[in-house]
Amino acid sequence: MGALPRRAGILTTMGATLALAISLLTLGAPQAARADSPAIATITGTVTAETGGAPLTFPQITLYVRSGSSWKFYDFTSGGRDGTYQFQNLPVGTYTLEFSPEHGDNFVTEWWNNASTETAATAITVGTATTTVTADTALATGATISGTITSPATSTFALVPDMELLASDGKGGFQDAGLWAYPTQNGDGQYSIVGVPPGEYTVYFGDDASQSDIAPLYYGEGTAGTPNEWDATPFSVAAGETITGIDATFVHGATVTGKVTDYWGNPLSNVTVDLGRRVTINGTAEWDVSSVTTNSSGSYRATALIPGSWVTTFAKSGYTATLSPASGAFGLTSGQQKSMPTMKLYRTLTSSTPTITGTVRVGYRLTAHAGTWTSGTTLTYAWYANGAYISGSVGHATFTLGSAQRGKTITVKVTGRKTGYTTLTRVSRATAKVG
């Protein structure tokens, strides 16, 4: 199925910083560039503004080391109030740097040396004679994207809305641009995303509040926003430009709740519940999916679902995946609270492919061998000639070939049944033609 309606996987600048900090706590010391070389060098510098030359306060600097053909995270530091930073005790290796402003400062992130992308970054080589490398940089003023978020009339603005910038991927879609913003604290819903480099973008509008029922939106010119990323309106941003009017109006999404049990009514936890919405993207029908899992009582709750037509599938290892409703989709409207009937899942039988032994000639008996099935499974047999059922053959593990089967291939279908399990049928390979 397709992508989640909510962009839960977007990694923000704050998230990236936290991930780096966690990696350091988890791994201890930074990864060595050369385990057999002494720590000898320091990379130091000052981060300033390209316009005016003032130092940036608390800039964020990430150090990468060359690993094969790519750059791998090595260390991270935050500069001081005067924009200075340093990485000490670096072993022999090839490094580069990424410079970012403190979140909320309107400067564009860049790589060493004045590069806009990782692939264009300049290498810094630390050799055995290297002691100190000075890497000063000046960041350009970024563009600003601003707008207003309007909350539903039935909500206070005590939500936790966030706006995330998405960059055009050059293929008709969008990808995370690593820039985001929250609204101002005065409750007017206004926001500004700063530090934006030139490019083509759109904006995602979501709500980070726990169990929020606010449906996600994307910027749609002339509309209150579109629920579909592929329908989002892109806009171009020039260096240092201020873009206004990137607005959206939140609506309540639908909420779906339910419970999953086994055949005997025992609650099932950790069942994956996929709620799918059929959509058309560039003329191709696809699924847009929101996934939740059941808790220890077998209950699930899916929120912020976009109004429309949905189906639900339930999957758990050892059980048969089930579609609900079997008769087709169900509709959801804005703010609707829908309680689904309890879903009963059946276990999946284990089985083998049956085989046939015996002489394949008229007047001789063939024997079906079911192989290994789940203990306690009741098996029945049915015989086929050239794929057509042989009347009267059901229920027998043996079959005596008659003249009506001459020149035809024979197969056997073995059907297993057990209470609480999904009925399963397996088919043998065909025999040679009956002689």
Q: What layout of secondary structure does this protein have?
A:
Blueprint: H1 13-27, E1 41-49, E2 60-67, E3 70-78, E4 84-90, E5 93-100, E6 110-111, E7 124-126, E8 132-134, E9 137-139, E10 143-150, E11 161-168, E12 174-181, E13 190-196, E14 199-207, E15 217-218, E16 235-237, E17 242-243, E18 248-249, E19 254-261, E20 272-281, E21 284-293, E22 299-305, E23 308-315, E24 322-324, E25 330-332, E26 337-339, E27 343-344, E28 347-348, E29 355-357, E30 365-369, E31 378-385, E32 388-389, E33 398-400, E34 410-417, E35 421-422, E36 424-427
Parallel strand pairs: 1-8, 1-9, 10-17, 10-18, 19-26, 19-27, 28-35
Antiparallel strand pairs: 1-4, 2-3, 2-5, 5-6, 5-7, 10-13, 11-12, 11-14, 14-15, 14-16, 19-22, 20-21, 20-23, 23-24, 23-25, 29-30, 30-33, 31-32, 31-34, 34-36
| Poorly predicted runs of 5 or more residues | 1-32
- Report the CATH topology name of the largest domain: Immunoglobulin-like
CATH architecture of the largest domain: Sandwich
- The CATH class assignment of the largest domain is Mainly Beta
The largest pleated sheet is described as: 5 strands, antiparallel
What is the helical fraction, as a range of percent?
under 10%
- Give the overall average pLDDT: 88
